[in-house]
Amino acid sequence: MSTIFTKIIQKEIPADIVYEDDEILAFRDISPQAPEHILVIPKKEIPTVNDIEDADAILVGKLFLTAKKIAKELAFDEKGYRLVMNCNEDGGQTVNHIHMHILAGRQLSWPPG
Ligand code: AMP
Q: What pTM does this model have?
């Protein structure tokens, strides 16, 4: 089932887009948990990490490569950042369209609460 992220992909609702190509979109999180909080998503609708298939391997790899590119462009690559993908209820997933959170700009605690 489509989510709000499909509406962002289709430009039906606005987002602060920081990167876009044919397969990937990245935009700022509406409720940032760090000075830099960006979501990197595939345009393909994949609800959860559990739904990733072998054929998606390159696409999922591109999420990492896009995160790396954004980190460099926004100049927090050397200082550091965290990549997170939440899955289902215990993981804290609230939007069922896989997305990689990029969190940066402050010291992040570990382990997560
Ligand atoms: P998760 O809880 O891992 O599923 O992450 C979903 C994220 O999407 C949350 O951090 C939300 O703040 C973010 N989010 C929800 N709606 C929007 C929106 N319209 N634009 C940008 N970010 C959103």
A: 0.98
